[in-house]
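Example (one chain per record):
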Amino acid sequence: MFRVRTIALGAMAAMLAAPLAAAPKPPAKAPAMVAKPAPAKPKPGLDLNIMKTQVILDHLGFSPGVIDGKAGAGLKRAIAGFQKANGVVATGEIDQRTGAALDKFNATQPVRELTLTDADLAGQFVGPIPKKEDEQAKLPSLGYSNPLEMLAERYHTTNAVLIALNSPDTPVAPGARIKVPNVVTGGRAYPANLPDGYKQTLAGLNVDSSQPQADHIVVSKGDKTLSVYDAQDKLLAQFPVTTGSSHDPLPIGTWKIQAFDYNPKFHFNPKLFWDAKPGEKSAMLPPGPNGPVGVIWMDLNKPHYGIHGTPMPENIGRTASHGCVRMTNWDAARLSLMVKAGTPAIFQP
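Predicted structure:
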């Protein structure tokens, strides 16, 4: 493990692709955000108007998933959820009525500029995460590879988007000013019964402590969404999800959330994974946001099934899972404040 104080975004991005080795020492000077020259302006396709819509919807609880300033299926689903909650025909397109409803939040800016502090960059970073579970099990934690990855999750985006929003040679160091998606929240009055470590996780992911309380949730395999409802069946929030595969299909039916494991360890049992390689052995993986189930496991009353986070937020809604309901770490953490033991979880085709 190593503690990083001054390093650049691009050097960190390069570290993510490097093979596992002895942890490098912090450089004397902060290098650039990217290892190779890159345009200082946002990449083509990163639209600040789209990012503004994504940021507003994220604040309102209709998550587009990764905030990247690009139109796509995640944004369309988020708009459709917002429309359902506001009595508008759910087309996923911003029509006149939807635009008028969103205009109430027009003062929200898509990007916030902030000055990095020592506290912003504090943490233990583990370097590149090895692919094999037996090697992951040797790490002290499956924490963030470097501060860039930590900042990306904190602002509900990816390394590439942070690099695109900033100059490639912007340092990640105390005193540096960087631009991030404007998802900052202030509520930190988390329930007293939560572990202190998980409270820190929630704050680090910009999850506000003020969340609506669910009566039940509905997971739609077809829509790739998890919707949160109150007792009057009013839609309160919606999140994008990955829901199983042909090998491990989503278990259609009505289940219940029965327990929570905060910042969980993960028992890798190759017998439960159809894609496990011959010769792979069981391993207990340490906790961390880069663990297979991310920062939270919400256990269901069906053996081996749960709702959880992921180390790969950009893949939500795009790839398969092993039957469970997978979410971005920030969305899963937010959901964990909305539900409780006993909350019905209805899984639909």
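Caption: Residues 48-60 form the longest helix (13 residues).
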